[in-house]
Amino acid sequence: MTENTQPPANGPHSAPADLPTQYTPADVEGKLYERWVERGYFEADEKSEKDPYAIVIPPPNVTGSLHLGHAFEHTLIDALTRRKRMQGYETLWQPGMDHAGIATQNRVERELAKEGTSRHDLGREAFVERVWRWKAESGGTISGQMRRLGDGVAWSRERFTMDEGLSRAVNTIFKRLHDDGLIYRAERIINWCPRCLTAISDIEVEYQDDDGELVSIRYGDGEDSLVVATTRAETMLGDTAVAVHPDDERYRHLVGRRIDLPLTDRSIPVVADAHVDPEFGTGAVKVTPAHDPNDFEIGRRHGLPQLTVMDEHAVITAPGPFQGLDRLEARSAVVGALREEGRIVAEKRPYQHSVGHCSRCHTTVEPRLSMQWWVRVAPLAKAAGDAVRDGRVAIHPKEMSSRYFEWVDNLHDWCISRQLWWGHRIPVWYGPDGEVRCVGPDEEPPTGPGWTQDTDVLDTWFSSALWPFSTLGWPERTDSVAKFYPNSVLVTGYDILFFWVARMMMFGLYAMDGVPPFHTIALHGMVRDQFGKKMSKSFGNAVDPLDWMDAYGSDAVRFTLARGANPGVDVPIGEDWVQASRNFANKIWNATRFALLNGATVEGPLPAAEEMSATDRWVLSRLNSVVAEADAYYDDYQFAKLSDALFHFAWDEVFDWYVELSKTTFAAGGRPAEVSRRVLGEVLDVTLRLLHPLIPFVTEELWTTLTGGDSVVVADWPKDSGFRDAAAERELDAVRQLVTEVRRFRADQGLQPGQRVPATLDLGETGLAAHEPAMRALLRLEPAGEAFSATATLPVAGAVVALDLSGAIDFAAERKRLTKDLAAAEKELAQTTAKLGNEAFLAKAPDHVVAKIRTRREAAEADIARITEQLAKLPA
RNA sequence: GGGUACAUAGCUCAGUGGUAGAGCGCCGCCCUUACAAGGCGGAUGUCGGCGGUUCGAACCCGUCUGUACCCACCA
Questions:
Q1: Is the CB of A285 under 7 A from strand B?
Q2: A222 CA to B14 C1', in Å?
Q3: What backbone phi and psi angles, to 5 degrees, belong to A517?
Q4: Taking a C-beta distance cutoff of 8 angstroms, is the pair A209, A354 a contact?
Q5: What is the per-residue pLDDT across A495-528, written as a single tens digit (0 to 9) for each?
Q6: Which domains are assigned to chain A?
Q7: I want to staple A212 with a disulfide (CB 3.0 to 4.6 A). Which of A231, A297, A387, A643 is the partner?
Q8: What is the ipTM of this complex?
């Protein structure tokens, strides 16, 4: 369809026939988004009187592009903020991006490599300039994708972690932490990536089980010898001791003595240390303080020298035959040399053990002794834990809190310095006489000969930790900070609970005088494929959300994601499901089209209940229940249940029943038709508004056409009017059951759906007389005389449908069906009778349960009577 | 080694004590004048195994098996 994409209607039910019979997302999505932005709907006013509702975007890496995980997260955030906006809050969805230190630097370095140059050739300043240029050129990818998705973010407030203001925030907090003694410099064993050439923090290390080889090596000679085992043989060059457990009888005689270290001319002491597990291996451990975190600690306890034998590239520096070899080459060379000396006591054997890899490039991490900057996290983490413990911050779903506590309660100090060029440079200067000066944002750095600035930059997460307030202008005391801090909710994946969430908590509480950065943390899961498998490029199941948005529309992608979003649980998504969501959008489209063709309207007040048919009252009663239900689900971040409830209400109840039943009313005309037109308008109006946060585009297009309103984006959020009509609901339940039963009967008899059948419809004492015309229409029943062939199974007491099947009835099939029904009813009767004969049950079960069982028994009895009668009437 | 989840229809998942549900898929009949991206009807499960508590268990308790993820300085 290419026609009919003109601007939205300028009045209620204008030109309904203009709507094409199929919804084409591409025709409306782009233009609607641009209109929303032009009209400033997404902008936030910090001076507004309205209550604030603020959510920050988890800033995507500038290097990145939108993947389904983003699409998912954005759908949830967008839905939350759109609803709050409709509810009359001053909403801020804060957009922005993260400079992603290592990732971005790696990316640009790869480009340079292709050009045959390197960052070292360029020099620091030129390189950083180059990264900025790269950011300017390709950093906008995500913004474009966010527009496609419909993200209602405040574009004028877009921020970047390296912006001047945010850098000032970083500097401010660094200075403050430093002066408070919470940032310090120390030489320790850190995780070193020999490819990225930088330190990385503990949580940037990904452990996986790798196949290694455990070799056993004899140290020393004769009685003065023992055997140690290792998977990193090359580190023996840096051994400065062997450790055994203090209580280990086997080695007691050796403690305090020195033994010869093979391949070297050194001898090393045997020390006793409780860290050694005497049960493991030989019970003797080689100690390499400069290349292993445990050994570092042992070395500290025993005053051992720290002998560095590898450089930053993990190349051996120890003088001798191994010098210049890479760690892996050195490993086999060392083992070979040891074997020649007869030092290998057990052949090397395969050994699976946990090995750390750089989370950015997957290179095996090398523990390395070096001087770095650290954050003393204990006091900060304590506060972060307490804020959740005492309920000031709620984690949703609450099962996730245990993970959070596990981390904040057992935290090691955080290594924040990175040996990179792209990032916030550490604001510390070193003087000629060993002075160290931390320079705050309003201070001049020291000048003069010999003063140099620290060459390292800060961990990316240092600046992300300030995101909830740095984006609002902090450290200035801006109105935005006052209005939107703390944020209302943080919506993010459980996978960055530690990387990001916990650190925002620590820094937020610290910087903002103990006020945590948000009231609620709503954690979602990871997007997976339709079989629940992790999406990854290497596995070949990764999907570009743009492909699906192109094919099925953004609404379809959003709705599918929302529909799978159970709190904290991973979300599978498959193309078939997106297609189904597209079908839903199309269904809404066509239902609205039908409504417009039939004169549905939102003008004027709703007619009085007395004027309405039971069908009208039923649908309005259900509508209001659904409004209440939707509110409860939104408030509880239950997107899957929310989507499901709206889907089924709209499709099953409104489209399949109310719309179908109303056809008869419309055809008859008169006042009842007028009333139904207004009711149908109301139902669609409210339903579209309820759905808008999830599927903004199609609802906007339809709602503006239906109501003539400016935009559903700024329409009022529906309120439960309190209208309920239990009697009408029961009545329509009966109608629906009855119609379904007759349809089943017809299908069983092989009647074609469209085939008209002479029939009498005797609704007896059911009180459903008013529905007879509609039911006859739905069932394709023609008026009939005396003819009688069979009766349908009737779930509503007192109703009889006599269908004249003109001799075409299949008596055998009917007998079979009735017999089956009879058996089921008899089983039901037996079950309920047994239950009601159970004294213990009657004594202990609540009244409503007992009553329910009674009703079931009565129904079973009635069924048996009726079916028996019908069976008797069937010709043999 | 510690921790947290999870095992329900072919697939992906809801369902926290009272007759087993949804979407997709599947079978059958229909282009019934909003929609075939649709309509109507239908089939499909000893709710992982074994015990226990209870009048009653998918649900609570114990245990076993299997899976996923997180944390941890196991040479």
A1: yes
A2: 69
A3: -70, -15
A4: yes
A5: 888 889 999 999 999 999 999 999 999 999 999 9
A6: 50-182+379-411+457-524 (3.40.50.620), 193-367 (3.90.740.10), 575-724 (1.10.730.10), 731-803 (no CATH), 811-873 (1.10.287)
A7: A231
A8: 0.95
